[in-house]
Design goal:
Strand order of the largest sheet: 1-2-4-3
Number of helices: 3
Largest sheet: 4 strands, mixed
Structural class: alpha+beta
Shape: globular
Order of helices and strands: HEEEHEH
Distance between the termini: 52 Å
C-alpha cells in the first residue's frame, strides 16, 4: 500500500550483487558521484539501488548524511528511472552532495548522462503578444 517507502526488495545488499555490478556493469562519473549499472537478473523488474561510501569521504556523520540524501533522492525519482536495472552509486565529494536538492541534481544528472532517465521535456517558448 505504501508506495513511498524504500523496502528491502528495492535495495542491493548482497556482496555478490555489488561485485557483479561493479565488475561487469557499465560505469560513468560526474557530479561528485560514480554510477555503475547493469540489467537486473531475469524476473526482477524493480529498480534496485546500492551505495558504496568510502571512509575517505569523511567521518561517520558525513558518510551517513550523504547516504541518507542519496537514498531519498533515489526514492523520490525511482519511477522515472529505467526499470529492470540495478544501480550502484559511490559518492566522491561530500561538498557537492551537501543538500537534498544537490543530491537529487547529481543523481538525476548522472542518470541522464548515462541515458537511464529520459531528458526533461523542453519548455515551450513564451509567446509575446504584440
Amino acid at each position: 500500500m505504501n508506495t513511498q517507502g524504500f523496502p528491502r526488495s528495492r535495495r542491493l545488499h548482497l556482496k555478490n550483487d555489488f561485485k557483479s555490478i561493479i565488475q561487469s556493469g557499465h560505469k560513468i562519473q560526474g557530479f561528485g558521484l560514480v554510477l555503475w549499472w547493469k540489467p537486473a537478473p531475469l524476473g526482477k523488474e524493480d529498480v534496485r539501488m546500492g551505495l558504496v561510501v568510502s571512509r575517505k569521504l569523511g567521518n561517520a556523520v558525513v558518510r551517513n548524511r550523504v547516504k541518507r540524501l542519496l537514498r531519498e533522492a533515489f526514492r523520490l525519482n525511482r519511477k522515472r528511472m529505467q526499470s529492470g536495472v540495478d544501480y550502484v552509486f559511490s559518492p566522491r565529494s561530500s561538498d557537492s552532495l551537501a543538500t537534498a536538492d544537490a543530491a537529487e541534481y547529481a543523481l538525476l544528472g548522472l542518470c541522464r548522462k548515462a541515458g537511464l532517465v529520459p531528458p526533461l521535456p523542453a519548455e515551450p517558448e513564451p509567446r509575446i503578444h504584440t
